[in-house]
Design goal:
Blueprint (H helix, E strand, L loop, with lengths): L1 H26 L4 H18 L3 H7 L2 E26 L2 E28 L2 H9 L3 E2 L7 E2 L8 H7 L2 E11 L9 E5 L3
Length: 187
């Protein structure tokens, strides 16, 4: 009898978690102005918190800025965020990030992510896709906060570099595996 009650409780908790991640993006859809404010603040934090951040941004062909990505999970997890692609310092398109996961996980966190496209080829492949999946469509080399790498070194190692910073909350690890970036049209 106790086993069935535990199973029902576990199924109910999983269902609530999945429902949260399905409904939440719709409920929290941001306007262009709200996304722009978040992107501007994230870029300011990037320049301040990431050693060499200003140089990376100057050398980039394009910059995908995803402020305030929310990640949460209890066995079933997910992450969601909205941001924009900047080319030449101007917003050219808005995107959302959606990812799901299944496995041993518990917790919640929020963080900012900046993905820098260092070559025209990498940027063009991203811009031409209707839904770009990190790890499948291209590899993103994550640079550890505090690490120092010159722009030349970064470009020679990988045409796409990712930075995760301003993390709040408690959940181990950030991964883009299976994360999909899709163009959106906010109001």
């Amino acid at each position: 009898m106790k086993i069935h009650a535990r199973r029902r409780t576990l199924i109910a908790m999983l269902s609530i978690t999945v429902a949260f991640f399905i409904a939440d993006p719709v409920a929290n859809a941001l306007t262009k102005a709200e996304i722009d404010v978040g992107v501007s603040a994230a870029l300011s934090r990037f320049r301040k918190d990431i050693q060499g951040g200003s140089e990376y941004l100057k050398a980039a062909k394009g910059v995908l800025v995803m402020p305030h990505i929310t990640k949460a999970g209890f066995i079933v997890g997910g992450q969601y965020g909205q941001g924009s692609l900047e080319v030449g310092g101007k917003t050219v398109r808005y995107y959302n990030l959606v990812a799901g996961s299944l496995g041993w996980q518990i917790g919640a966190e929020e963080y900012d992510m900046v993905i820098i496209f260092m070559t025209d080829d990498a940027l063009n492949k991203f811009r031409k896709s209707d839904g770009w999946e990190a790890g499948a469509d291209a590899e993103v080399a994550f640079v550890q906060v505090g690490a120092t790498a010159s722009v030349a070194t970064l470009v020679s190692q990988n045409p796409i570099a990712g930075f995760v910073f301003d993390q709040k909350g408690l959940m181990a690890g950030v991964s883009l595996k299976g994360a999909k970036f899709t163009p959106i049209r906010p109001e």
